[in-house]
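How a chain folds remains the central question behind the approach discussed here. This step matters because it turns folding into a mapping between discrete strings. The sequence in question and its structure tokens are set out directly beneath this paragraph.
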Amino acid sequence: MNGQLRMSEPLVGRVVAFDDAVGLGEVASGDGTRYSFHCIEIADGTRTIAPGTKVSFTLLCKMGRYEAAQLTPV
């Protein structure tokens, strides 16, 4: 998978930041750990999500660090 590893256990957290202009955001898991994400990882394909939105997500290990993936509002 081109150096990427998806973790299958879904987490729940909240979007804490999202920049529409560049398509990058950050989600905080229930324990406060923050993970960055790119807009292509928003599961419904909208490419935008409001800060404060509660989401479920998985982790994607990319180049030695974890990013949020498959973000789905809950």
The domain at 4-73 is CATH 2.40.50.140 (OB fold (Dihydrolipoamide Acetyltransferase, E2P)). The two ends are 28 Å apart (CA to CA).
